[in-house]
Amino acid sequence: MTRFRVDLGYRGTGFHGWAVQPGLRTVQGCLESALETVCGEPIRTIVAGRTDSGVHARRQVVHLDLSAEAVARLIGRADREPGAALVSRLRGALRHLGCPDIVIHSAQTVSADFDARFSAIWREYTYRVADDDTFLDPLAVERTTIQRGRLDHDAMAKAAGELLGLHDFLPFCRPRPEGTTIRTLFVLDVDRDADAAILLRLRADAFCHHMVRATIGGLVKVGAGSWPVSRPAELIALAEGGAADVGPMHVMPPQGLVLEAVGYPDAGEWAQRAERTRARRLGVDA
């Protein structure tokens, strides 16, 4: 078997999330159908982090294993480099299957030590919110959440700064059985872009289910004046103090969320990183 790393992006508007679901159009379903078309056999993909319905990705990462027969079929008689052949053939198959909203960036052969999910050392997301001060660009509507009123982005930035570091993000997660809600948040920036939309950038070692949208939901409450600046950090402190119930989450809509990139260590560290991550987080989405 030959392992490939594939980098891709997608517009999430027309998908019911990443994971295959019977009778529903999903990113994984379209991708694996295209892979079966070009390889002549069913192919299973492992993704860096599953995204919810309506969430976009600029740079997502998957790995997959191809048999010698599948690789031979892929490269054909031209004896092309397998990664380049996979990119070309997948692009054509996705167009043929009616999935132009998935873009294949690159593909390369990697060692079996590489795991798209467990070898990752960070994921980065952005979230875009338009308030009353924002110029509403019709070309950006599909990746923007519209919020009535004016948000105090300075207050949001101050509250965001108090969440950085290693914490139990239970107040902003939907916990999974046998999983942990402890994460390290490296970056949480809040600023306004050229259209005066509020753009939030988050980078962490991994994210729990709904962690990004719920954390931003808390910051939006701060920006709207519904919560004091100190409230998000206070909820984290309550969870770390053993409180099991800290109130309902405010989960933001999906369309403003974009997976921007996934980071990995050097090749020699892939296996060690994957082993450590599995030990801590098996059973919890990245």
From TrEMBL:
EC top class, as a word: isomerase
Gene3D superfamilies per UniProt: Pseudouridine synthase I, catalytic domain, C-terminal subdomain (3.30.70.660), Pseudouridine synthase I, catalytic domain, N-terminal subdomain (3.30.70.580)
Domain of life from the UniProt record: Bacteria
Residues forming the catalytic site: 52 (nucleophile)
Keywords attached to this entry: Isomerase, tRNA processing
Domain called Pseudouridine synthase I TruA alpha/beta: residue spans: 159-265
Catalyzed reactions per annotation: uridine(38/39/40) in tRNA = pseudouridine(38/39/40) in tRNA
CDD domains named among the record's database cross-references: PseudoU_synth_EcTruA
InterPro entries in UniProt: PsdUridine_synth_cat_dom_sf, PsdUridine_synth_TruA, PsdUridine_synth_TruA_a/b_dom, PsdUridine_synth_TruA_C, TruA/RsuA/RluB/E/F_N
Role noted for this protein: Formation of pseudouridine at positions 38, 39 and 40 in the anticodon stem and loop of transfer RNAs.
Name listed for the protein in its UniProt record: tRNA pseudouridine synthase A
